[in-house]
């Protein structure tokens, strides 16, 4: 094939030929062509997840960048391995290339660099709520007009409504959306003046339909996560979930965490519009999916409720989140919002509304509000710790008397970022493992029982906990020198690594290992959670002038649901309490969104909560550096904080 005006790049084994645009790197080329490539850093060349192999045309490409030289081994660079986000065509070669038969450049994308569908948590512990939705449908028969009393259609409708609803009672005045008003004349007469009205907030008519359609009254609740999106289609008449769908948040192509996405928005003129459009489109796809499964029309969905962290909240609403990322971390708005669905291009009924739960602070968002509402931590008699285990770890400590929250920068190690063989919880990811202390052999499980491709967050926690129990590493996180000559270790240019799976047993034809850097990444994550908990607890102790002790723990979110809670405690991620008082409550944020959809009174409770909750800025606390440094040890520098973990008496400190 020849094209004298355009450069074509051949990507294998996916059999895609893509047209190259000037000043575009290969990562941008792939993402803009809807090819999902792994990247935790958003294309900044620091995570090393977007590797590719140049099979032909190396001479036309830019030389390896400084970022690549840091991330890739000398062996990989020699073998023509590149990072897609750093690889582009040398500008001096472009005119020459255009005159040659195409393609002149052929690239191989290994399986490990392609993003697969992964395990998304949709369920959780739901304590249930009384049914009192914000949207109700009312079927009425309207008096027919006559020449004696010429009364407009709307006035006759209001008269009929007042006999069955609160309209015209208790100072509740009726109103009607303009779109609905335009439909009234024809709709009213389509079924001999039998009509169903959809009421929002008891008095606002947002839709009208001929006949009795009361049964078709739906809402949808969304959890907009940094990594995943989950939608729950719910019948507002009976409170039942009729369909659930989930998807990867497409914004992950522009950065793994919220800081990366803020950076992308700051550095790209159309960055906010692009990220906003991507998440709106993905949410509308979920709406189509749940409607298809339930065999209903999106027009029968009248309200959507949303939770998400503060940055996801802002991007979804097309509000610039830049200043959330800059001290003093101020959001544009904190209060809850009711927004017309058509104003944000949401594919539900045109008269419908989107309800955004309130934020708590710059880095503590509506997802935390949802967790508090669904877990009812504010009603517990015992002091309770709730953690949303993720990149931007939200921590809540409290009970019926007091409540405080804060956010810790746990990093994305649990997402697989900065872990040599790390990956999300997709097929082929090692998600649990055991190490035999006698011979250091490893038994593991993978998601969907696929051949090992890498290791996900729950597997990383297990690996480090088991390495501690087997005395392979010390309490400070270093490798025990007495073990490094064992056959289970491999020596690399950058140090030794413990082999979890030999290359012959993997799907990537190389060993899956745990390196010293991998251990450090997990140490930083677990130290962030534990030190954050200590700082909030210290704040409450000072406020109450009594020593408060955590009696139970709620682990929320996908990681909180899938991790081995005993191992999370063993490495010092959470306090030392009995396993029977550690509860994995699933997607509590999503359940909070569901409950606010089903009972409008919870929205008042949410407003009161955020007024009364104490917010602790963990990173600027006076004791932060000291607490964090102590928490870097396994399980902690002070073993007296973990009296039940007697195994540590036999593990070297350094």
Q: How many strands appear in the DSSP assignment? A: 27
Number of domains: 4
Outline type: globular
How far is the N terminus from the C terminus?
Answer: 62 Å
Low-confidence stretches: none
The percent range for strand residues is: 15-25%
Question: How would you describe the overall organization of this protein?
Answer:
The protein has 4 domains: 106 residues, Ubiquitin-like (UB roll) (Roll); 76 residues, Ubiquitin-like (UB roll) (Roll); 138 residues, Nucleotidyltransferase, domain 5, CATH 3.30.420.480; 277 residues, no CATH class. It is built from 17 helices and 27 strands. α10 packs across α15. With 654 residues, it is α/β, with parallel strands linked by helices. The chain is globular, with a radius of gyration of 28 Å. A hairpin with a 5-residue loop joins β11 and β12. 28% of the residues lie in helices and 22% in strands. The longest helix has 29 residues.
């Amino acid at each position: 094939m020849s094209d004298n005006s355009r450069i074509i790049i051949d990507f294998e084994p996916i059999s895609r030929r893509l047209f190259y645009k000037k000043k575009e790197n290969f990562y941008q080329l792939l993402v803009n062509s809807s090819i999902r490539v792994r990247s935790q850093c958003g294309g900044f060349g620091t995570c090393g997840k977007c590797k590719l192999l140049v099979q032909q045309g190396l001479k036309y490409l830019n030389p390896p960048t400084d970022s690549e030289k840091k991330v890739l081994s000398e062996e990989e660079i020699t073998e023509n391995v590149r990072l897609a986000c750093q690889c582009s065509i040398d500008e001096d070669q472009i005119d020459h290339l255009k005159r040659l038969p195409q393609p002149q450049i052929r690239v191989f994308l290994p399986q490990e660099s392609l993003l697969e569908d992964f395990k998304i948590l949709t369920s959780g512990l739901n304590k249930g709520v009384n049914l009192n939705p914000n949207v109700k449908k009312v079927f009425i028969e309207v008096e027919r007009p006559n020449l004696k009393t010429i009364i407009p259609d709307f006035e006759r409708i209001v008269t009929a409504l007042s006999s069955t609803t609160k309209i015209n009672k208790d100072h509740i005045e009726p109103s009607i959306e303009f779109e609905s008003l335009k439909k009234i004349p024809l709709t009213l007469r389509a079924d001999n003046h039998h009509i169903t009205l959809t009421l929002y907030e008891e008095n606002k008519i947002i839709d009208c339909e001929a006949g009795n359609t009361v049964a078709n009254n739906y809402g949808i609740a969304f959890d907009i996560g940094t990594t995943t999106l989950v939608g729950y289609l719910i019948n507002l008449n009976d409170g039942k979930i009729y369909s659930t769908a989930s998807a990867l948040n497409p914004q992950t192509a522009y950065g793994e965490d919220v800081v990366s996405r803020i950076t992308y928005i700051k550095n790209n003129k159309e960055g906010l519009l692009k990220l906003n459009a991507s998440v709106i489109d993905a949410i509308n796809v979920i709406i189509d999916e749940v409607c298809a499964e339930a065999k209903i029309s999106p027009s029968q969905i009248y309200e959507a409720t949303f939770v998400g962290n503060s940055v996801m909240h802002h991007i979804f609403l097309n509000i610039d989140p830049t200043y959330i990322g800059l001290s003093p971390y101020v959001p544009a708005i904190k209060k809850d919002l009711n927004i017309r669905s058509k104003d944000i291009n949401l594919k539900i009924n045109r008269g419908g509304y989107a309800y955004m739960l309130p934020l708590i602070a710059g880095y503590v968002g509506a997802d935390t509000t949802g967790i508090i509402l669904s877990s009812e931590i504010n009603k517990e008699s015992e002091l309770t710790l709730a953690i949303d285990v993720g990149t931007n770890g939200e921590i809540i400590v409290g009970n019926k008397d007091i409540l405080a929250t804060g956010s810790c920068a746990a990093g994305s190690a649990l997402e697989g970022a900065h872990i040599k063989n790390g990956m999300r919880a997709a097929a082929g990811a090692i998600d649990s493992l055991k190490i035999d202390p006698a011979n250091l052999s490893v038994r593991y499980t993978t998601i969907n029982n696929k051949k090992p491709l890498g290791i996900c967050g729950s597997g990383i926690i297990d690996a480090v906990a088991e390495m501690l129990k087997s005395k392979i590493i010390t309490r400070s996180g270093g490798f025990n020198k007495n073990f490094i000559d064992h056959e289970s270790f491999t020596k690399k240019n950058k140090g030794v690594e413990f082999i979890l799976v030999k290359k012959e047993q993997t799907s990537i034809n190389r060993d899956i290992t745990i390196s010293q850097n991998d251990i450090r990444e997990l140490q930083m994550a677990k130290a962030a959670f534990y030190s954050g908990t200590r700082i909030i607890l210290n704040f409450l102790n000072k406020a109450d002038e009594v020593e408060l002790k955590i009696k139970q723990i709620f682990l929320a979110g996908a990681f909180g649901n899938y991790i081995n809670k005993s191992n999370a405690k063993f490495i010092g991620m959470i306090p030392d309490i009995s396993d029977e008082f550690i509860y994995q409550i699933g997607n509590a944020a999503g359940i909070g969104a569901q409950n606010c959809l089903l009972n409008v009174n919870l929205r008042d409770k949410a407003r009161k909560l955020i007024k009364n909750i104490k917010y602790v800025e963990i990173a600027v606390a006076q004791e932060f550096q000291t607490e964090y440094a102590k928490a870097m040890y396994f399980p902690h520098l002070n073993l007296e904080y973990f009296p039940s973990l007697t195994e540590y008496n036999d593990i070297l400190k350094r």
